[in-house]
Amino acid sequence: MRKAGLGLIAGLGAASGIIGNPLFERVSASAWASSPKQPGRRWGMLIDTRLCPAGCTACVDACRLTHNVPTFSDPRRRVEWIHKEEGRALLGTACATKQTMPALCNHCAEPSCVRACPTDSIFRRKDGIVAIDYHRCIGCRSCMLACPYGEVSFNWSDPRPAIKEPTPDYPTRQQGVVEKCNFCSDRLKKGLEPSCSSRCPEGAMTFGDLNDPKSAIRRLLQANETMRRKAELGTEPSVFYII
User: Which PANTHER family did the record assign (predicted)?
Assistant: First the structure.
């Protein structure tokens, strides 16, 4: 995948009218089923916002605990793998509700963050997961600038003292590196689903193989009209929403 300079990315965005476009692309019930697929498995997430309980943070809490995500009191140093955001702010005018709903890395098929990284520390796996090699990260934050969703965080301070309940099951990071959702690739290796979807009390989050027509996520995509964040940018997000 050829790298593109950040200035070129910004210039193309302005020239093509990307900036200011609607936040979401509407996807009909049959669109995903009929669109061409890359061979092999591709992990994805579908969030049914109709089932997402108001004020619930179970998915956020589970993620923070599972992956040693630090909690800083200073909002300018916030590190998040998944967070909840007001529906209108997240989905745009297509969403009338002010209820908060989950937002996370979209694990795009054409990730702009990967193109922008000069060290290949952020990369897309064959199964569709966009992952980070913390040891290769030089802290340049090019990926943060390139991500149109703002879903990459940077450790301005040492994150370890800000971890409330550290777990030995996942490595902690250090000051000066980026981090984000990894679709719980560590849990997938053990045959487990992501901690966020497994802890959702109402089953609002469905995780699975987008390329498997028999999977639960594919059945839901075929039966419902869904939306993806800023899909008009051509990033091909792997996170879908039912509103």
Answer: PROTEIN NRFC, PROTEIN NRFC HOMOLOG
| Domains (range + CATH), the chain | 26-242 (3.30.70.20)
What phi and psi values does residue 142 have, to the nearest 5 degrees? -60, -35
37 phi/psi in degrees, rounded to 5? -115, 150
Is residue 64 a contact partner of residue 72, using CB atoms and an 8 Å limit?
no
Closest C-alpha among 156, 150, 151, 119 to residue 137 = 119
| Span 134-159, pLDDT tens digits | 999 999 999 999 999 999 999 999 99
User: Residue 169 carries which side chain, given as an amino acid letter?
Assistant: D
Helices (H), 22-110: 31-34, 58-66, 87-91
| DSSP alpha helix (H) spans, 104-233 | 112-116, 142-146, 185-188, 195-199, 216-223
Cα 217–218–221 angle (5° rounding)?
A: 90
pTM, rounded to two decimals: 0.84
The per-residue pLDDT for range 6-55, each reduced to its tens digit, is: 333 333 333 333 333 344 445 555 455 555 566 789 999 999 999 998 88
